[in-house]
């Protein structure tokens, strides 16, 4: 996880980064209304705007008289008040939510009614907006999973100039990248990105108006998402099994490696690894933590969900996926499922696997993991044969520059 700050480099020596601090603490709430969000601008249904104008006329006769009663502090100019009541204006521009909250209060129109008639909203001065919003916003395991994604492969972007920070999610796999956006839309509504956005970008953004809710709900600051200090918030551990599992799945997607015998999550943040180990212990998944010793992976800590734990994890995942289909392990899920077929494969106790490996390596250079996938064998079994073939000088190490060495003839 990294922090990105956009600054004016012509005056970088005097620039001071303002760390974002949560506006309010919302951790005890389950649902959130649009007025719980920060700096919201909205668009309303035409029929509802017409009803507001009709009620204003009945109660105050004229807009200037209504303005004097509703905005007696003069912070909202009369011209602005007149404009926001015009559909031609509201159709093309987003209007501050506070203005309509004030109007509805004086007209005895409930905030809930106002919320029901919001057709889209965004952050003031923001670009991406939410269309057909899901309101009120419900906190589900998918919400907790999004937090985990923002910790794992996310970036906090602080644009400065008084604007709210927001999340970017770096993901090169197209399926997982699209799933991230679908999870946001499942919670909040349809996000309007610019045309052909995903054809050119591998980093979808979570609009600032939505990102701020994550900061406020979990009581986090932007530095809490740095890779060396990020932690799973305590509130997550106080939730049910579904939320804990959703968080673990997010880390498997972003930072996990799956082979025939275990799931491994690699991180430099030891405390974060210990948080994930606590989740595994709570969910009764057999696991352990090790520290990488090779030069390439030096400084990394590894959480291993062992074979027995994988089976329990997989059963729970399938149940969660049934309840929340958007929680999808994708190709890593297929790899986990295929790993359970190893014990059932026909060649499990047949001779000749070493000869098969040798024949494959005569035409390709592959790693232990790649061979294990190709032959539906365990890594340990592949390593045993690779070791013997190296000792017999029938194969060689073709490439040591990668995390997974390549072998060939």
Task: Write a brief caption for the model.
The chain has 409 residues and is of the alpha+beta class. 45% of the residues lie in helices and 15% in strands.
Characterise this structure.
It is a single chain. The chain has helices at 46-60, 63-70, 78-84, 87-92, 97-106, 111-116, 141-152, 174-188, 197-200, 208-218, 234-237, 241-255, 270-282, 307-323, 330-339, 353-361, 368-375, 379-391; strands at 2-5, 31-32, 40-44, 95-96, 118-123, 129-131, 137-138, 154-158, 166-169, 190-192, 205-206, 256-258, 263-267, 287-291, 301-305, 396-399, 406-408. The model is unreliable at 2-28 (pLDDT under 50). α12 packs across α13 (270-282). The relative contact order is 0.10. It is α+β, with helices and mostly antiparallel strands and 409 residues long. The chain contains 18 helices and 17 strands. The protein has a five-stranded antiparallel beta sheet with strand order 4-3-5-6-10. A four-stranded mixed beta sheet has the order 1-8-9-11. It has four domains: 2-9 and 135-225, no CATH class; 46-116; 234-340, Endonuclease I-creI (Roll); 353-408, Winged helix-like DNA-binding domain superfamily/Winged helix DNA-binding domain (Arc Repressor Mutant, subunit A, Orthogonal Bundle).
